[in-house]
Amino acid sequence: MQSSDSLQRQRPHLALTMGDPASIGPEIILKALVDPSLTQTCDLTVIGTRSLLHQTYQQLYSTGQSLADPDSLSMIDIPLDLQTIRQIIPGCGNAASGKASFMYLETAITHTLEGKFQGIVTAPIAKSCWKSAGYHYPGQTEVLAQKAKVNRFGMLFVGRSPYTDWTLRTLLATTHIPLNQVSQTLTPELMSLKLELLINCLQQDFAINNPKIVISGLNPHSGENGQLGTEEKDWLLPWLEIAKSEYPDVELLGLVPPDTMWVKPAKAWYGNSLKVGQTGDPSRDQPTLTMKNPADAYLALYHDQGLIPVKLMAFDQAINTTIGLPFIRTSPDHGTAFDIAGKGIARDTSLKAAINLAAELTQQKLK
Ligand SMILES: NC(=O)C1=CN([C@@H]2O[C@H](COP(=O)(O)OP(=O)(O)OC[C@H]3O[C@@H](n4cnc5c(N)ncnc54)[C@H](O)[C@@H]3O)[C@@H](O)[C@H]2O)C=CC1
Ligand SMILES: NCC(=O)COP(=O)(O)O
Fold first, then answer.
1. Which of 43, 49, 226, 281 is deepest in the core (most CB within 10 A)?
2. What per-residue confidence (pLDDT) applies to 41?
3. Residues flagged as binding site for substrate
4. Which CATH number fits domain 1-149+325-367: 3.40.718.10, 3.40.50.300, 3.40.50.970, 2.40.30.130?
5. Is residue 154 within 8 Å of residue 162, measured between CB atoms?
6. For residues 158 and 142, what is the distance between their CA atoms, to the nearest angstrom?
7. Are 88 and 97 in contact (CB under 8 A)?
8. pLDDT given for residue 1 in this prediction
9. Which CATH number fits domain 151-322: 3.40.718.10, 3.40.50.2000, 1.20.1050.40, 2.40.160.30?
10. Helix (H) / strand (E) containing 28
């Protein structure tokens, strides 16, 4: 049996960045952190601007929703000058909010690399606001990787079905690049790198020793034998055959046509929850798993190929996690939602899931 001392030592300390302060970030943080179950397994320190959390608190107080009191939160407070504060208006992301969100992330990374935190949960930022503020990164993922001095990393989405408890894991081979650059960016080397990262993550972080991974084709019908695109025939299929021989303990399936690839995961996600007798409300229906032996992970070749199905099935429940870093990083699957910022209607479900997953994965690493 473990002593309470060793359990205490294994309790992860996570940084939670406020994201873009003009977004729903402050609101979902105040909503999530009122839930005591979140801090049962980890300690959380918010990295942001306390006065802006106060503003959100005041703004939403009259809605009668449960909110954490900003003064009660463990925080690294990054005060902003009055002129910047005036420029930060809910729903209006701009250079000022972009600069603040970049500072929150940088601070979280610095403290984590120094050992103060074992993981980072990031609220959403807007890449366009970073650009306006002069930060030219495709997203938070690349900043994390650069500052951690890592060049082998991946963007993995993880979602646990509320209907069946099945876990959907989707790794993107390419991420934030224009569609017309996907084909030339994909190479056998890149695919091997992403596959290796995914297998390591499944085995080490999720304790799946012999994972089953499904890999998508690129073109309609996976190229239809060269008639609808040649990448599959030219190199993706030969690459897959080599990968199969390199990983005899891993079941690699593919190249599955990108449209049909999502039929089985959707069945595993929904189960028969919408059959007679079931209400469709996951909190009332009994979990049922109808798909036998669904895959442990899906490797999609580009952003929308992977994220359209993830968001259709799991929006607000899935988590974006960066794999390959020396620490855990998770984030909600949604963005800044400027259209609803300040309105009090943002859901905190994905942020809570991101905090819970970060705590779980960090504990796994600390064992
Ligand atoms: N983790 C991150 O930092 C992410 C950042 N983004 C950034 O967010 C910005 C906006 O992206 P969009 O494509 O518009 O996606 P979005 O996720 O911000 O919004 C899409 C729709 O979902 C709604 N929505 C999003 N989150 C919600 C929540 N928690 N509760 C209730 N409704 C919610 C929004 O109101 C909107 O109608 C972009 O600048 C993008 O770069 C996008 C995805 C992830
Ligand atoms: N579509 C996912 C996304 O935009 C998240 O990006 P990042 O800021 O976590 O790199």
1. 49
2. 86
3. 141, 311, 320, 329
4. 3.40.718.10
5. no
6. 19
7. yes
8. 43
9. 3.40.718.10
10. helix 25-32
313 C-alpha vs ligand 1 centroid, how far in Å? 16
- Residue 102: the pLDDT is 98
Low-confidence ranges of the chain (pLDDT < 70): 1-9, 272-292
- pTM for this prediction: 0.92
ipTM, interface predicted TM-score of the complex: 0.97
Distance 145 CA to ligand 2 centre (A): 13
Closest CA to 302 of 180, 125, 201, 211: 180
Nearest to residue 323, comparing CAs of 185, 182, 158? 158
Q: Is the CB of 321 under 6 A from ligand 2?
A: no
For residue 255, whether the previous peptide bond is cis, meaning omega lies within 30 degrees of 0, is yes
Give yes or no for residue 17 CB within 6 A of ligand 2. Answer: no
Pocket lining: 141 vs ligand 2, CB cutoff 6 Å = yes
